[in-house]
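Hey Z.,

So I finally got round to the pyridoxal-5'-phosphate thing we talked about over coffee. Here's the setup:
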Amino acid sequence: MAPDTTAAAATAGLPQERRLVTAVPGPRSAALHERRRGAVSDGVASTLPVYVADAAGGVIVDIDGNSLIDLGSGIAVASVGNAAPRVVDAVQEAITHFTHTCFMVTPYEGYVAVAEKLNEVTPGSHAKKTALFNSGSEAVENAVKIARLATGRTAVVVFDHAYHGRTNLTMALTAKAMPYKAGFGPFAGEIYRMPMSYPFRDGLDGKEAAARAISQIQTQIGAGNVAAVLIEPIQGEGGFVVPADGFLPALSEWCTANGVVFIADEIQTGFCRTGDWFACDHEGVVPDLITTAKGIAGGMPLAAVTGRAELMDAVHAGGLGGTYGGNPIACAAALAAIETMEAEDLVGAARGIEAIARPRLEALAAETGRIGEVRGRGAMIAVEFVARGTTDPDAAAAGAVARACHAAGVVVLTCGSYGNVIRLLPPLVIGDALLSEGLDVLADAVRGL
Ligand SMILES: *Cc1c(COP(=O)(O)O)cnc(C)c1O
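And the result:
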């Protein structure tokens, strides 16, 4: 391919190209995979067992020397590009000063600066405060703790196809049994699952879908018992399900009217991914609490709960925290990642990715008859595979397309309650030529079904 001359590629430290020198996975990866099988729990699976040597911008280079196009960003994490220059510099600078003191013991400025930044960039202009954690699951658990304590109520409403994590409480909040929940119970109580707005499968507009969910909440739980409604504004693992317009605003209004805390889980959708800073911004929805992680720190582990100051401050001193939460190196990385998003207009970049990908995927759907719907926003786009001429989920097709992409050197991920969705989460800095080449490979794989 022609060299990629975009500004993003120029800042990335590796040639931004797809280059295969062995089969994928190659012999070195295969050997390391054997070694891993002797040491690592089989309960931890890998989508594509090529072992990584380097990654930068939009490529991953494996230990056999293959350069793969990254359309997954390590599950929406490396949004600013892998080993993004500002993040690398900030981490290297921070690590020479101290690696850990524990913010709950002797605090430091980076944590405060990240909290200020999150209070500023998250939806809404009300007074906000933030607490930092290590993982998305931990942020969700803490958002639920805060909502319960602040309201004095216990019930938590979640939705079909939801994914909120793998810890005990978040397993209960997550919808899908395999692989996330099966055999791991008993689960936490007082969790109530309601129908999601899923226009491709329910045919309802946003108002109708919200009325259906709200009526079930009122009859099955009672508004006065509900501490929180917890929802991903665009569902991630559940299949990139985009609720119909009006669904989120109606839920949020109902929450406000009933003293219920509206929690937006933006762990996958946040930080420019959907072509807005946060997916809630698209319809002007202002959550009471928002959980963030994944894209927040350019690959360093960090998560947050940000929300209305009076809710965040309802908790007694010591009620929130954790040994590593808001690690100083991760905080430095987050400040650098957010600066990158602002300086390089990654909101605009995400919209640019959609402008390239969506028409290509829609044409592919029309041409092949195997894609029931192209959906998502910004750089969070998916195709849902169906049996030809029906809406019946076709997981085998999604699996075959993913395998063909992997063999051709393009990292794509599957998702969906029915396992029939291929999702694209490219780094927002990916060059146009590299993205187009990745889409060419995907198109060939779908045509080959
Ligand atoms: C990934 C994810 C989580 C869990 O985050 P971890 O860091 O894996 O614990 C929670 N919610 C959503 C929407 C996610 O995409």
